[in-house]
Amino acid sequence: MHFVVMGVSGSGKSTVALRVAERLGLPHAEADAFHPESNIAKMSSGVPLTDEDRMPWLRSLAQWIEEHERRGETTVVACSALKRSYRDVLRSGAPGRVEFIHLDGSTELIGRRLRERAGHFMPAGLLASQAATLEPLEQDEAGIVIDVEPSPEEIIDLAVRFIDGRIADLSDGPAGSALR
Ligand SMILES: Nc1ncnc2c1ncn2[C@@H]1O[C@H](COP(=O)(O)OP(=O)(O)OP(=O)(O)O)[C@@H](O)[C@H]1O
Ligand SMILES: O=C(O)[C@H](O)[C@@H](O)[C@H](O)[C@H](O)CO
């Protein structure tokens, strides 16, 4: 299984995904590290990425998922995954085995956290475009939504419980097919 912690810039994806992966001892990918220099330069200068900018980046993440799937590993990924079509690309890495943990909150709260964050290329000014681009999970998309107001520890606990639950559900399934 592959669990993608998604949401707009500043929602806490990097913080939560890293610590969840550490707690569960799972391989972890940070989508920021998969961007080509040109994307980083664009965002740093305050210009939102386009679908064309994002597609090769999403495909490289899908490939990372696919490689781990082939090795039978469960992973945790931090990636904004703002649109359903972007999530489709990520799902293509391991069809039926990619689920999303959407960190959701008000633009006001997330904006405050972004303005207080230091040493990151992403300017707080891009939050409005991130929020406008966001397509929340639809009914048929596997995953959960977690509110970002509580402390990181509480959010991490909820995410860990969700992942543990999903892995347990699958290992109870026919012939323990998904215990891996
Ligand atoms: N639950 C929380 N409560 C308080 N502060 C938080 C919480 N989660 C994250 N933060 C802080 O908010 C800021 C944004 O978090 P983080 O960098 O993890 O977000 P992100 O979604 O990965 O952002 P980006 O997509 O821009 O990389 C950080 O300074 C982080 O320490
Ligand atoms: O799709 C996007 O616009 C990007 O993924 C951004 O969300 C940034 O990578 C990230 O949020 C900043 O760290």
Task: Describe the structure using short key phrases.
single chain; 180 residues; alpha/beta; Rossmann fold; five-stranded parallel beta sheet; 7 helices; globular; disordered C terminus; binds adenosine-5'-triphosphate; binds D-gluconic acid
Describe the structure.
This is Gluconokinase. Its EC number is 2.7.1.12. It catalyses: D-gluconate + ATP = 6-phospho-D-gluconate + ADP + H(+). Pathway: Carbohydrate acid metabolism. This protein has one domain (2-176): Rossmann fold. By secondary structure, the protein is of the alpha/beta class. The termini are close together. Mean pLDDT is 95; it is low at 176-180. The protein contains 7 helices and 5 strands, in the order E-H-E-H-H-E-H-E-H-H-E-H. Helix 1 crosses helix 7 and helix 3 packs parallel to helix 4 (84-91). The protein has helices at 13-24, 37-44, 51-70, 84-91, 107-116, 127-133, 152-171; strands spanning 2-6, 28-30, 75-78, 98-104, 143-147. Bound molecules: adenosine-5'-triphosphate and D-gluconic acid. Residues 7, 9-15, 32, 78, 80, 113, 117, 122, 148, 151-152, 155 line the site of adenosine-5'-triphosphate.
What is the rounded distance between the termini? 8 Å
Tell me, briefly, the overall form. Answer: globular
Total number of strands: 5
- Give the tally of structural domains: 1
Named CATH architecture: 3-Layer(aba) Sandwich
- Uncertain segments are 176-180
Distinct small-molecule ligands in the complex? adenosine-5'-triphosphate, D-gluconic acid
Largest sheet: 5 strands, parallel
Radius of gyration: 16 Å
Secondary-structure element pattern, one letter each: EHEHHEHEHHEH
Organism: Marinactinospora thermotolerans DSM 45154
GO molecular function, one term: ATP binding
InterPro entries: P-loop_NTPase (IPR027417), Therm_gnt_kin (IPR006001)
Pathway: Carbohydrate acid metabolism
